[in-house]
């Protein structure tokens, strides 16, 4: 029992250091690579990467804010026919990876797609007789990301609107303000911290995206890292581009931390009047229904229908041994990563609970940073040190015993699982800490008074209460790993492909029908945590 705190502290800090390793390794590799590479990048592609990344961030920020806040306001503060359906349906696009939407909409909106083909047939136009927006563009990539990321803003804004007292809003209405004016001057400022947090989450996912921008040919830092690492074999260039992207991510993480620190939360007592929903009738009700239906139509219905049509016309067989292998690889990686990540979250969360203070707070904060780091950066940050370690061991074994050990760690599943843990530990920690708030400190005191040590308290008191939260964390990490693409592309073992990799490979070869099949399987898995979130939203 005496060594239990030390074991807990050592395990928690071990996890924190594992999460810090990729960032430290990338920074060290970039610094020790010299200035020639970064000077060459600055004179060739760095400006284009920066401009495209910044414009993508701006477009996604504006789009997710407009759709997320507008939809949250309509389903929370007004009442119209179908509002109960839309408050759940508006969350469903979260199940889709953005690159899956990119494949679906390319088949619909590209030159040979159904929309342009119909226009040419109906209007009797030739290929050069009309102009049509190019889906494979920066604007198209931004649209795909907005459609799958606005639920972050929607969920947080809706929760904030629900918690607001209606007194201030009704006071503004009593002073002659219109519903729109009262919303802009009262409700929106009160929800600013939650909205800012949702937009920043969407932006973090934007800079981490690889599949969408790569398929649409938009050159960003994420695509630059992959191109430098694989196509050009330039490890120094990949590391220095990863540092640039890491700076973007840290800047966003600092902004999120600042806005969260400034946020003020007030206890909503029962005596306060909650906002009464404004009844909408006639054209206003129709207008509200249309506004809520558009994101669901564009983000769920059209993509699923398009993927099903494409999949039916493809030659891909989900029951073939090859596809069963892809599914098995995806399930093994996702299950293993989810279990290890949740165990790491338990260790960190329990360490902070049992030994609150600067040490536990710092360890938890370091572990959370991985969520702000794109998968490509984590992959480069792990490949560089572990490849050096493998090469050093191999050289020593050759010299000493004339035996080649090869790459023991660099090409293994376990290094890829470590990358997943670093990337998604923050999500598991959030779910664990949400459940841990239900475990009153008096329970810990009672357990200690009965002679139970920390690990017995965790096993017999905390874990039974935390079972729903732990299952939620497992499910969230499982599906995030199923969808993850950049780290998997860079770090997967040879000939160890997943459903996400297969979808990307087929789409890159312009075989969209084939890519639709694994994409549909990924979406089916993605619906599981979204349905769970929808159930929680419905209860609340």
Q: Can you tell me about this structure?
A:
This protein has helices spanning 4-32, 36-44, 46-77, 83-89, 98-109, 114-123, 138-163, 166-174, 179-190, 192-208, 211-215, 221-231, 235-262, 283-312, 321-354, 358-368, 375-401, 413-436, 441-449, 454-483, 486-491, 499-508, 512-539; strands at 78-79, 278-279. The longest helix is centred in the middle third of the chain and has 34 residues, at 321-354. The chain has a two-stranded parallel ribbon with strand order 1-2. The chain has 23 helices and two strands. The radius of gyration is 25 Å and the shape is globular. Residues 264-271 have low confidence and may be disordered. Helix 13 crosses helix 17 (375-401). It has 540 residues and is mainly α. It has a domain at 1-24 and 315-510: MetI-like fold (Orthogonal Bundle).
The biggest beta sheet, please?
2 strands, parallel
User: Could you tell me the strand content as a percent range?
Assistant: under 5%
Stretches where pLDDT is under 50 for at least 5 consecutive residues are 264-271
| Oligomeric composition of the shown chains | single chain
Q: Helix and strand string, N-terminal first?
A: HHHEHHHHHHHHHHEHHHHHHHHHH
**Major sheet: order of its strands?**
1-2
CATH topology of the domain at 1-24 and 315-510: MetI-like fold
By secondary-structure content and strand pairing, the structural class works out as mainly alpha
The total beta strand count reads: 2
Q: What's the CATH H-level homologous superfamily of the domain at 1-24 and 315-510?
A: MetI-like
Q: Gyration radius, to the nearest Å? A: 25 Å
Helix residue percentage: over 70%
Q: Which CATH class of the domain at 1-24 and 315-510 is shown?
A: Mainly Alpha
Q: Count the helices. How many?
A: 23
CATH level-two architecture of the domain at 1-24 and 315-510:
Orthogonal Bundle
